[in-house]
Amino acid sequence: MHFLLFAIALYFLPAIVAGLRHTHNATAILLINLFTGWTFVGWVVALMMSITSAPAYVYYARRW
After folding, report:
1. Residues 6+ apart with CB under 8 A from 40
2. 63 in any annotated domain
3. Burial degree of 50 (CB within 10 A; 0-12, 13-18, 19+)
4. pLDDT single digits (tens) 21-38
5. Number of H helices, E strands in the chain
6. Strand, coil or helix: what is 8?
7. Alpha-carbon gap, residue 64 to 54, rounded angstroms
């Protein structure tokens, strides 16, 4: 049972990373991961997209 949960979490790792980073294309990454993640090439593409895409918002430090 634990292995199944681990395998599902590993399979959706690109979507989880994109969601945690609040990327602007998180939905596209989820769909790529869902439909082509089983090919491993699709999984790597989704992972690279989730790591390299910019967050949807940027925090700017305020100078006083």
Report:
1. none
2. no
3. buried
4. 989 899 999 999 999 999
5. 4, 0
6. helix
7. 27
**49-52 long-range contacts, Cβ below 8 Å, gap at least 24?**
49/14, 49/18, 49/25, 50/14, 50/15, 50/17, 50/18, 50/21, 50/23, 50/26, 51/17
Residue 30 lies in a domain: yes
Q: Which residues contact 29 (CB under 8 A, 6 or more apart)?
A: 14, 15, 18, 23, 46, 49, 50, 53
What does pTM read for this prediction?
0.81
Structure tokens at 56: 């949807």
As for how many domains the chain has, the answer is 1
**Amino acid, single-letter form, for residue 25:** N
